[in-house]
């Protein structure tokens, strides 16, 4: 009886520990007030044309610092870009798919900043944070261990709607609809990385699959 009671007590303890989990990463909920920072156009050449939602780095810097100094999260020190954003149209989508069909970066920037009802449409987008994510792999070409950490998004319907308008523009110019899927992207806020960032071209997916820690915004 005693043994059984001790076993049950132990199992209860284990279960509650698992459910409580390690400390979540906390972020200031003002990070969602992206309409308070300007839209930044990115249009300076090959691999440099893309569309992003600018995020106030003041609310992201301490999350980077925590990840950079917590081994269980960052697994060593990381490089920071010193800014934060959500890429909404990738450089590869622009260079390889949209631009060859005649879509210009100016048209995309116009779509991002103009709307029937409001100015600065993209900066006004609503989104939520799913978790802290981490992707890791040994890259084939050089055999180097790479890793990248990011805040992974959820509830980003506004971003999908923007991409749907980009899709309509692309198709109206004769673009092949098979080549651009508004819903096929994994929006995130990059925090830092080991040597270089990892991308879908490397074969990594920055979705729920990559979650390592809960994020709480308050
Ligand atoms: C931590 O990084 C090293 C490379 O420096 C890697 O070999 C190892 O798998 C990583 N471990 C975890 C738990 O991420
Ligand atoms: C990350 O942490 C290391 C070790 O504490 C530190 O030297 C480095 O400056 C930090 N990186 C940034 C970008 O703050």
From TrEMBL:
<dbReference type="InterPro" id="IPR054498">
    <property type="entry name" value="2H-SAK"/>
</dbReference>
<feature type="domain" description="Swiss Army Knife 2H phosphoesterase">
    <location>
        <begin position="51"/>
        <end position="199"/>
    </location>
</feature>
<keyword id="KW-0732">Signal</keyword>
<dbReference type="Pfam" id="PF22547">
    <property type="entry name" value="2H-SAK"/>
</dbReference>
<protein>
    <recommendedName>
        <fullName>Swiss Army Knife 2H phosphoesterase domain-containing protein</fullName>
    </recommendedName>
</protein>
<feature type="signal peptide">
    <location>
        <begin position="1"/>
        <end position="20"/>
    </location>
</feature>
């Amino acid at each position: 009886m005693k043994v059984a009671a001790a076993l049950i007590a132990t199992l209860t303890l284990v279960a509650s520990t698992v459910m409580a989990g390690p400390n979540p990463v906390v972020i200031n909920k003002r990070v969602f007030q992206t309409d308070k920072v300007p839209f930044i156009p990115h249009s300076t050449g090959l691999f440099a044309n893309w569309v992003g939602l600018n995020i106030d780095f003041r609310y992201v810097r301490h999350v980077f610092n925590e990840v950079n100094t917590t081994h269980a999260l960052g697994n060593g020190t990381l490089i920071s870009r010193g800014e934060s954003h959500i890429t909404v149209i990738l450089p590869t989508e622009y260079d390889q798919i949209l631009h060859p069909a005649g879509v210009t970066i100016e048209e995309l920037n116009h779509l991002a900043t103009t709307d029937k009802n409001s100015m600065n449409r993209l900066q006004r987008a609503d989104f939520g944070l799913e978790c802290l994510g981490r992707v890791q792999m040994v890259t084939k070409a050089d055999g180097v261990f790479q890793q990248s950490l990011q805040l992974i998004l959820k509830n980003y319907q506004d971003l999908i709607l923007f991409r749907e308008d980009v899709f309509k523009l692309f198709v109206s110019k004769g673009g092949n609809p098979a080549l651009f899927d508004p819903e096929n992207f994994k929006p995130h806020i990059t925090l830092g990385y080991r040597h270089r960032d990892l991308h879908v071209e490397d074969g990594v997916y920055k979705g729920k699959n990559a979650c390592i820690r809960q994020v709480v915004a308050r």
